[in-house]
Specification:
The chain is an alpha+beta fold and 328 residues long. It has 6 helices and 16 strands.
Length: 328
């Protein structure tokens, strides 16, 4: 299935590369220092295999009408949008973003226009080959329920091609393992899934320098432009990924885990989370038998923070009970 999916993407993307070469191999439409031909080749090589629900209420990732200032859905056909740009101050490294954009988020706290993505940090191995160093999956990014993950590429079989990525039903958060899907607090579910058929992989270019008519990417109606403007691979995150076990996947933002445990379900969830905490940057080890029970942290202080959160929740509940005249 990986071959069939990759072949489908290549069928669409190779003509673009051929046109670019015909116009001149140095063509750089988005003016980021990386030629259109190289961007197209890298996006095709590392395209992930997205696993999605067959009964998602938003159907499949959407294709948007080109040359519109605001995002307007043209077809919910599984289109994936790509971005490739060289990393500043890191010679030879290129960051690849793969955006699956949806007509709407139809889970808890639903909203229109859902922006989700995964990304890879790749490096040129020699004159003709590239290799991925890390993969990042965004899950409820920039919210209290942020469950984004990062790992070394080899841990998800993603060094020379894209790994499998699970998209939660309705919420569309991205996960590098189906076991991690239920570990956040966003109501995610990755039950019955199958590979997403993606007819197109479209390069959006850079913010304010759109390619293929994707000027809607800069619209203030959604946070796509912000995600296009930053790197997912900070030194802190890559160092954390380097420290986990050989089969490990690290939380990208572990400092949010105590708050998430509280949101996840009150005192019982807090107690269970406290028992599953580990120190020193561990996250979810997808090779272990107790993966589904882990809520982990990047520092020894997390357990203390979790206890403080529990006490705060209890105080708030007691105060509410007193106001309502309820027995405690």
């Amino acid at each position: 299935m990986r071959f069939l999916l990759a072949a489908g993407l290549l069928c669409w993307i190779l003509p673009v590369s051929a046109q670019t070469v015909a116009a001149g191999a140095s063509g750089d439409t988005d003016q980021d220092g990386l030629s259109d031909a190289v961007e197209s080749a890298l996006l095709a090589q590392f395209a992930p295999v997205f696993m999605a629900s067959d009964d998602d209420c938003s159907l499949r990732p959407a294709e948007f009408v080109p040359l519109r200032a605001t995002p307007e859905v043209q077809n919910e056909n599984g289109t994936i949008y790509g971005q490739a740009f060289p990393r500043q101050s890191h010679d030879g490294q290129v960051e690849l973003h793969y955006y699956h954009l949806w007509r709407r988020d139809c889970g808890e706290m639903s909203h229109v226009l859902d922006v989700e993505h995964v990304s890879a940090l790749v490096v040129r191995g020699d004159a003709s080959s590239w290799k991925a160093l890390y993969w990042y999956a965004a899950a409820h990014e920039d919210t209290p329920c942020d469950a984004s993950q990062i790992t070394r590429a080899g841990r998800v079989a993603g060094e020379f091609h894209g790994p499998e990525v699970w998209i939660s039903r309705g919420k569309h958060a991205s996960f590098l393992s189906p076991a991690i899907c239920a570990r956040g607090c966003g109501g995610d579910s990755c039950g019955v899934m199958k590979p997403l058929t993606s007819p197109k992989l479209i390069n959006v270019g850079e913010r304010s320098r759109a390619m293929n008519g994707a000027i809607w990417a800069d619209s203030p109606q959604w946070p796509l432009a912000e995600k296009m403007s930053r790197s997912d691979f900070t030194e802190t995150r890559t160092a954390r990924a380097d420290r986990v076990s050989d089969a490990g996947i690290a939380w990208a933002n572990p400092e949010k885990r105590p708050m998430q445990a509280a949101i996840l379900g009150g005192n019982n969830a807090l107690a269970g989370a406290s028992g599953g905490l580990h120190a020193a940057d561990t996250a979810l080890d997808t090779a272990s038998s107790d993966t589904g029970n882990a809520l982990n942290s990047a520092s020894e202080s997390t357990e203390s923070g979790l206890a403080k959160t529990a006490r705060s929740v209890k105080k708030a509940l007691r105060a509410t009970a007193r106001k309502l005249g309820l027995k405690q």
